[in-house]
């Protein structure tokens, strides 16, 4: 079985095939004992078994590439000067990728590769690994071969931007290998012995771009690993930070304006929540553009609920960094405010409360009129949860203080909606909350409330008078039309009674 595994790797010559066949039994025994394979450059081999293994190994792993070290040796069985070469040999061995759709296929080879990957992780974690350029190249090559793949269309055909409560997440059958490769890559990136000047030649823009493409995986375990690794790369490779921000922005643009399908939006936003908190002040124009052109439009897709928490955190982080951005953020929320989607409207009200909590008085005054016009509509929503959530804004002390300081403008906007609720809203919970809000406003400024009441009564009287005037006007027109003789093709207004007589 091991021969089949090794035969997948490129061979040097046809002559080596015979050596491979001759040494297959020796390799199997060595895989079991862990210490039966010798170095290929040993000139003192004393048995036919080790000689056959040596020939096979030199054919499969050319000495010019791996310095003549057998990949199946244990790290503890070679001297320290040779461990680096053995490390590269094992990495080359793990470049073989297996098909996990059939669990009964290549089971022995899969187990051997898994054990080799575990050895690599332990070796990197022990701190013994010294990452020279060949080792860095080998690690990047091995991770690229194992991780970078294109998801088939049916793999994400039902994707709507992350799993919802009703959807079962899909798990990659190759995870037993992928998880260890991710662990190795994470330990490699976070290693203190890794020199970024050398590593950036291999962890380049192409590598990072392919890594970001993997965020569309439907396996939540894979996205979680990617999130941690990308965050570490962003922190360690400063030269790549602008490229990462630009590429993530492009992912957001395509998601919002083209596909509305991506599984990793929440994870990418979670990374940027930490990144934004580290932005230096004053904020660069590039960072503000990321807020306006990438984060705010993310409120548009229907599946916003799958990443709402992370998105709200990123937005509030920007406002905490620079309070002047609050009015722009609220304008953006009002721009994308849902009109026919009640569940999404509930999300917007919740996020609006979080934004208002970090909004100062100056910025609040810039947008309070359009904001409370929208809240007034929510108060009168026939969907009781929307009306209820809008009334809950008065439970927030900071928002109440903002309203109190600007009550001369805000109360006349919302009072008619509150009065309408008390008269004819169908839900008892909304009625009770409305009464409590009215009582709070009366305690805040009873005189202003009375003024609003009288003004509302006056407006309603005027509306009734205007409605009566319209009714009388139409009645006169109908009477005139009913007695006007028809001449030629003259169009006339006929009442239902006139039409009945005509018939």
From TrEMBL:
Please list the residue ranges that the record marks as compositionally biased, kind Low complexity.
Answer: 39-50
What Gene Ontology cellular-component terms does the record carry? Answer: cytoplasm; protein phosphatase type 2A complex
The signal peptide, as residue positions, is: none
Question: Which residue ranges does the record annotate as region Disordered?
Answer: 1-50
- Which Gene Ontology molecular function entries are recorded, alphabetically? protein phosphatase activator activity
* Origin: domain of life: Eukaryota
Q: Which family does the UniProt entry place this protein in?
A: Belongs to the phosphatase 2A regulatory subunit B56 family.
This one is known as Serine/threonine protein phosphatase 2A regulatory subunit
């Amino acid at each position: 079985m091991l021969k089949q595994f090794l035969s997948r790797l490129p061979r040097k010559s046809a002559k080596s095939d015979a050596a491979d066949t001759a040494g297959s039994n020796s390799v199997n025994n060595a895989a079991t004992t862990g210490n039966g394979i010798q170095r290929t450059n040993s000139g003192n081999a004393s048995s036919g078994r080790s000689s056959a293994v040596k020939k096979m190994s030199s054919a499969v792993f050319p000495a010019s590439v791996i310095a003549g070290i057998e990949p199946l040796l244990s790290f503890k069985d070679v001297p320290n000067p040779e461990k680096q070469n053995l490390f590269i040999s094992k990495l080359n061995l793990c470049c073989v990728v297996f098909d996990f759709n059939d669990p009964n296929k290549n089971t022995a080879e899969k187990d051997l590769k898994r054990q080799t990957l575990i050895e690599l992780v332990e070796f990197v974690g022990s701190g013994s690994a010294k990452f020279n350029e060949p080792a860095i190249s080998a690690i990047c090559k091995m991770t690229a071969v194992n991780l970078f793949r294109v998801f088939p269309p049916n793999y994400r055909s039902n994707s709507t931007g992350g799993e919802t409560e009703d959807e079962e997440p899909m798990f990659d059958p190759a995870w037993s290998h992928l998880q260890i490769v991710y662990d190795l890559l994470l330990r490699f990136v976070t290693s203190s012995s890794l020199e970024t000047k050398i590593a950036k030649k291999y962890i380049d823009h192409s590598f990072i771009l392919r890594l970001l493409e993997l965020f569309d995986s439907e396996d939540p375990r894979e996205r979680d690993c990617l999130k941690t690794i990308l965050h570490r790369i962003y922190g360690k490779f400063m030269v790549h930070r602008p490229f990462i921000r630009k590429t993530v922005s492009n992912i957001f643009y395509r998601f919002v304006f083209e596909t509305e399908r991506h599984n990793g939006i929440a994870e990418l936003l979670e990374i940027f929540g930490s990144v934004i908190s580290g932005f230096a002040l004053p904020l660069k124009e590039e960072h503000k553009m990321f807020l306006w052109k990438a984060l705010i439009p993310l409120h548009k897709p229907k599946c916003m609920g799958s990443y709402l928490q992370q998105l709200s955190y990123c937005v509030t982080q920007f406002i905490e960094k620079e309070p002047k951005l609050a009015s722009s953020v609220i304008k953006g929320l009002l721009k994308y405010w849902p009109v026919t989607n009640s569940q999404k409207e509930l999300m917007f009200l919740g996020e609006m409360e979080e934004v208002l909590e970090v909004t100062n008085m100056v910025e609040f005054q810039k947008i309070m009129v359009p904001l409370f016009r929208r809240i007034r509509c929510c108060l009168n929503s026939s969907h009781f949860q929307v009306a209820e959530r809008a009334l809950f804004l008065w439970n927030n002390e900071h928002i109440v203080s903002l309203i109190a300081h600007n009550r001369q403008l805000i109360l006349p906007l919302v009072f008619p909606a509150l009065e309408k609720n008390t008269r004819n809203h169908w839900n008892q919970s909304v009625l009770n909350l409305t009464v409590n809000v009215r009582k709070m406003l009366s305690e805040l400024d009873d005189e202003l409330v009375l003024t609003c009441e009288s003004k509302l009564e006056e407006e309603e009287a005027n509306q009734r008078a205007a409605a009566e005037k319209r009714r009388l006007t139409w009645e006169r027109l109908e009477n005139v039309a009913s007695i006007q003789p028809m001449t030629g093709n003259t169009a006339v207004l006929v009442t239902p009674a006139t039409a009945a007589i005509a018939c």
